[in-house]
């Protein structure tokens, strides 16, 4: 890769960018690559470009940046430059890509909502492509359950595509990030999307394909995942529905069949990580905690309803829930609604 060769020779991209033609030839650039670089450099006002990025609240990450996602850097062809709006956090190393057809059926949407809800509650970041259909459902389900989500675009971050997902994109920035390898102003050309799929899989531990036809772009993401050594998961579908052709074939070819989030967590050995993080909180430390846990599940419950069910003062309920959230036992989903952080959390009566 030419960028990697330049980095190896010059040590950093800034020195490579300002190097003269002779030094660039020594670094290994052929005549065509050298000509293209010199033309680009002559046309580009770097200071103006950086000012434009700042106005758009877009950060630029390179391979040398400590914030560059380490999992993405491990793939065979990581993007040399990653444009980011929002925040890529350390916890995003624990991410699952969820992709599928743009023409999602009711079944595909329900499967996405159920699986992503459970994965988000288990603190996994959801990565997808902001497309219509399964991608959009995956992002929304993560956001609805206070999970983190990352959208990888096939265009510049100033041109949200599809346009009806502009509001969704704004929400994603608040709870994750929009990322792209394409500079601002790059239009969503069809040729941009297959390469961006390697970033979706590259950011993730594995790729879950929920619903896909025989020629779905989601299958390209699954192919990239396999090439990158990432796990591939698929939701089985109706034998007589075209949108199931791709996912059923993936299962035939060795993808892990998924009917619940537990299938993914177990395959990636993440159940133990969740259990270890919760080991000191499995047993309630007080009678009040035990009472509250008896009335909590993966479905959000409002504090007023918990107070009514437990016959506890509202102040007692809210203060204990705040402590339980710090311990990793429960999570507030917004509007003073709470859920169990993990379905397998066991409750005991404290005498």
Task: Describe this entry's structure for a reader.
The chain is of the alpha/beta class. The chain folds into three domains: 1-44, no CATH class; 90-272, Rossmann fold, CATH 3.40.50.450; 280-340, Winged helix-like DNA-binding domain superfamily/Winged helix DNA-binding domain (Arc Repressor Mutant, subunit A). Helices cover 45% and strands 13% of the residues. The protein has helices at 2-10, 13-18, 21-26, 31-43, 46-55, 70-73, 106-121, 134-144, 166-174, 193-202, 217-227, 245-252, 261-267, 271-278, 287-294, 303-310, 314-326, and strands at 59-62, 81-86, 95-99, 125-128, 149-152, 176-180, 206-209, 231-234, 256-257, 301-302, 330-332, 337-340. The protein has a nine-stranded mixed beta sheet, with helices on both faces. Strand 4, helix 8 (134-144) and strand 5 (149-152) form a beta-alpha-beta unit. Helix 7 runs parallel beside helix 8 (134-144).
